[in-house]
Amino acid sequence: MKLEPECIACIFSQALRVCETLQLDKSVTKRVLDEVALMIPGFSFSETPPQVAARVYPKIAEILGVDDIYRDYKAEAVRHAAKLIPVARERILKASDRLVAALKASVAGNVIDLAAKQSFSLEEEVKKVFETPFATDDSEELREMLKSTGYLLLIGDNTGEHLFDILLMEQIEDLYPHIKIGYVVRGRPIINDVTIKDAKEAGIDKIARIIDSGVDTPGFDPGRINYETRKHYEKADLIIAKGMGNYESLNDTVKKPTFFLMKVKCGVVASSLGREIGDIICYRNKGACNV
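Predicted structure:
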């Protein structure tokens, strides 16, 4: 999905949101905003929003003298999510359709997003998501494809959310024991996206092979993946991509059966999908082109 004018305003507002979240003083905030404003003429409508963000966030990190802007907030997100996992797991195990329940639990975790303008309560999402229908629902097609899938790649999104992804992988492992799972993470800290360190600390290596994509954007950019990840991507029979950043990066370039699993948190993505902000989505992109 290519950059839209609204995305430019959103990315600039994200810079302000970083400053507000970190409670930076006015002088540092102005310096951050000045630097990001100077970058705007270099934004191109041929780029995806995550490709632009991959330049903006490192610039902010450089100004602040840190390598992981949201490190402390990611740790808190993990602690917060961990408290809700037992409740979500119990709901899945009691559900008449454990796969759909696990898909919805995974989407509930997608509300943990420090880049989104629209925010949602994780507690409220966990409470209601199991009774909320997918606005776009290709879960039956996913169920059928899982029956013949040998290797599944689940492309992660945000830290904290990855704990809910474990619930989905647990059910896939139980319902489809023939499937091997790869869990793809970002190649470096950007926004609050999940990295190999976060995934290992959560014990994801006990249920899936953790794959460090090498990608430095807040979305799985096929043009930036490392050689090892490209081998896994080409080997995979099926892709499940979590969140808007992965949708923005992959939707126009998929060459594999790909299901996007997310909470819609922005008007541009909502328009692209023909849905509303707040909708939950399980959508298969049926197009294909060369990466």
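Summary: The domain at 71-285 is CATH 3.40.50.10880 (Rossmann fold).
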